[in-house]
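ok so for the tutorial part 2 we go from a plain amino acid sequence to predicted structure tokens. step 1 is just haveing the sequence, like this:
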Amino acid sequence: MAALCSGVFLFMLDTAIVPVTVPVMVRELSASLNSVVWVTSVYLFASAVPMLFTSKLGTRYGPKRVFVAGLALFVAASVVCGAATSISTLIVARGMQGFGAALMTPQTLTLLTHLFPPSSRGVAMGVWGAVSGLATVLGPLLGGILVDSLGWPWIFYINVPIGGLALILAVMLIPDWRPGDTGRFDVPGIVLSGAGFLLFVFGVHNGQRFGWGEVWGRVTVPQVIVTGLLLLVAFAWWQRVSRFPLMPLRMFANRDFAVGVVTLLLFSFAVTGMFFPLMIYFQTVLGLSPSAAGMLTAPMSLLSGTVAPLGGWLAGRFDAKIMLVAGLTLVAGGLTVIAAMVAAGTGPWSLLPGLLLCGAGMGIVFSPMSTLTMGSVRPEFLGPASGTFNMAFQAGGVLGSATVGVLLQARIAAVHETDLATAVRESLWLPVGVLLTGALVATGLRSARQRTVSP
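step 2 — the prediction. this is what the tokens look like for a chain of 455 residues:
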């Protein structure tokens, strides 16, 4: 458990730690805001797209071996990220880091489900969710302290000692279990899903940059987006007819799994998207240093870390569905409070009530979401279900980062950079709406009583 959670902690920490350094990277690397947004997006993209393929690697060659390989690549890429002297080098290295995360992340849920019997699996999932949630909200605080005290490269160098310890634990403690899958790799599925997702995210991310017009020759941004969507539709069709699908569509006949994946995607979209405008507001509008901006989120981090284990314990004893809906609603309520108070003259600590609500909600969400979604998956679908679950989280993060980033840039352009607070406030309403939609979708999950009556 310690070995697996160490890898998950690194992966989630690097998802959340970069946004606090955006203003510093723009200045020190002489880069545009759009380029620095790609530092986050390429990491999320590189970790999301191959995840179905890497979950297949785990079932073929053994989840421990793939986990260790991914963790080693992640640590090596972190060194390259820290040593980067240009934005282009940093983006490439972040892509390598993301692929390392894609190798190790799906294996964690596969191993947890294999190692823990049903009687204790809920607690294990709760701990996994608690670690994920803690890393997500700890990222801005740790990033701010490292940037102010040692410089932005140390948000990547910090991965080396943590990752080295995780590698030792993984090699020594994780059993070398192989599920024995001999099915072929779904090469057309890999190509269709990767190309479709790449084109769709590229179009959304760079639409504002190209004025929603031509990108290459007569190829326009809307055409790129539509082509990406068509390729994803073709991928879904291929999964129905393929003998060895990456994502067996029969998994989605399980209502809990289908609803849980959609809920997770919406939650990831909102949480990843909300941190980008908040860090711009804290540092550019309120004039806080990176460490001060991180300290502002410290109470949220502490509360989330405190609530998460309690949420995992309660999810095993009460209706996890109610807890999930309540957690999503709390995050939406907290973000609403923050958005309503965003203004040029707002005192930083007056945002604390909203941040605390967000922290409490995040701490509650992760454990019941993972338990409800993965708890009823049939054994033969365990590998692809784990890949799909993790890919949904990353896909939501990619879309959230790109969409909210584009919206913020559009609003900044509309106010001619004279009222950044207004642009930030308007961009925050999108994550609020997405969170409320996620809470509504989560009501479609079966309650504990329904699961007992009709498993």
